[in-house]
Amino acid sequence: PNTGKWSGTTYYGEFPWWASQYNDRQAVDFRIANITWEPVFPRGMYTFLPDWRDMVFKYKFDDDRNNKYRRFITSPFVNDEVNALAEEALNKSSIGMDDITDLLALTYYAGNYAHKSVQECAMEMQDTYVRLDRSIANLLELLDKKVGLQNVLLFVTSTGYTDSESADSGLYKIPGGEFYLNRCAALLNMYLMATYGEGKYVETYHNQQIYLNHKLLEQKQLNLTEVQEKSAEFLMQFSGVNEAYSANRLLLGSWTPEIYKIRNGYHRKRSGDLVIDVLPGWTMVDENTSESKVVRHSFIPSPLIFIGHSVKPAIIQTPVTIEHIAPTLAHFMRIRAPNACSAAPITDLR
To answer: Are the C-beta atoms of 211 and 224 separated by less than 8 Å?
Structure first.
């Protein structure tokens, strides 16, 4: 988002030479000044539009020099960049060159441009899906040319992530309000000071999680579990809070369906001491970035599509979860599933 170049992870050691070469010679920062996004089709073919939307859009990413790459990665053109790097991998690495199965995982973007609302971006969203369809077609053509589609098993699913929509109109009388995490954290710190004495007990807060100052608690010889539980009880009194979970409750408490969902996204070494579940219909407001997000507990169905090697045409109505994918791929390859896989493979695909 800052340089327009691909970055990697230190986990694998060296950055691939072909990716460095791509960054040095072909990265989007060399081309972004000449990229313009306009609709693929005439205005009349984009039908699901608000009444006021008569003009077609035209975006030049280079016009906003401070945010040009951040805007670019929320446009459908970023999918062409993903394909371009995938082609580099297929041409210059050893992927697909031997009898050992390789995994290529790509993420495409099909969200709102510049994270605007759906109402503002109705035409852009429709054009995004037109271009996404073409990006997937280009990927299939590339794979067919390099390794042959008969040798490839593809699976397609969604991240399940969507940009926040606007709050429901007051006309519907749905209970709601604004929840400020920074104010919540400040009041919690004042409460802990009144209980345990002077000090900065709340170290930081982020994404509905509050982190306590463990060093201060050790200095004061306070029991971490007790402070977490007291804090959770205090947070429960805030308007808009549905539930407040302490780390101790998530890790060692009794199982419930709600705790299971939150526990799946919780890591004891990285996540906060307190996790706040805000009521649906309320708006999470970040005063530091002036961003807001409407909380919705709606079920978001996402398709899981398998295509390619030995897959028979069928529609399976049985609900599956994301954890079914890895064991299913392992089942296709006739290898053992990863050691943390607890779900059974989907076996009636071929």
So the answer is: no
The per-residue pLDDT for range 227-274, each reduced to its tens digit, is 999 999 999 999 999 999 999 999 999 999 889 989 988 999 999 999
Q: Is the pTM of this model over 0.90?
A: no
Q: Under 8 Å CB-to-CB from 225, ≥6 apart: which residues?
A: 246, 248
Is the Cβ–Cβ distance between 67 and 37 less than 8 Å?
A: no
Residue 42: name the closest of 126, 138, 116 by CA: 126
DSSP string, 148-206: -GGG-EEEE------PPPPPPPGGG-----EEEHHHHHHHHHHHHHHHH-SS--EEEEE
Lookup: tokens for 318: 């049985």
CB atoms within 10 A of CB 282: 21
pLDDT digits (tens, 9 = 90+) for 96-111: 888 899 999 999 999 8
Residues 6+ away with beta carbon under 8 Å from 349: 306, 311, 312, 314, 316, 328, 332
Q: What confidence score (pLDDT) does residue 348 get?
A: 84
From the centroid of its chain, how far is CA 98?
33
CB 200 within 8 A of CB 185: no
Tokens in use for 16? 């691939």
Q: Strands, E, within the chain: which ranges?
A: 36-37, 59-60, 153-156, 178-180, 202-206, 209-212, 241-246, 274-278, 283-286, 291-294, 305-308
Question: Which helix (H) or strand (E) is 262 found in, with range?
Answer: helix 257-264
DSSP state of 318: S
Sign of the torsion formed by the C-alpha atoms of 53, 55, 60 and 65: negative
β-sheet bridge partners, residue 156: 305
SS3 62: helix
